[in-house]
Specification:
Helix content is about 35%, strand content about 25%. By secondary structure, the chain is an alpha+beta fold.
Length: about 130
Amino acid sequence: MIVRAVKSKAIIAGLLFAMVGCQTLATDGDVAARITNPTDDSRIALQNAINAALDTNVTLASNALNDSSVLTIERNPSSSMENLPAQGRNMDMPMQFRLVLNDGDCVLVYTADDSRRKLADTSCIAE
C-alpha cells in the first residue's frame, strides 16, 4: 500500500513538473515585436484581444503597436454633469501589453497576468 501511494505521488509530481515545463517552453522563444503592414483584419484582431483581456471595450489608435512592442492604456475616469471626476491626478496603474514574436506567431501578452493571445491575420517583426 505504501509503495503504491508513493508511486502515485511521484507520478502526480512528475505530471505537474511537465505541465509547468511546457508552459515555460512556450515563452522561451519570445522576442519583442511590432506590427508590420497593418490591415483592417489585424486591427480587429488586436482590438478583440485587448477587449477580451480587459473585459471591456477600449479605443485604440490605428497605429497601435506599429512603432513599439509596448502598448500602455490608461483608465478613463467616468464622469457626467452630476458626477464630475475629482480634480488631481489619477493614481490607477495603467494597463500594459507587450507584443512578442514566438515561433512565427504574433502574440499579445497582458503584463498584469501574463495571459497570452495569438493575433490572427497579423504580421509582425522583431524589434
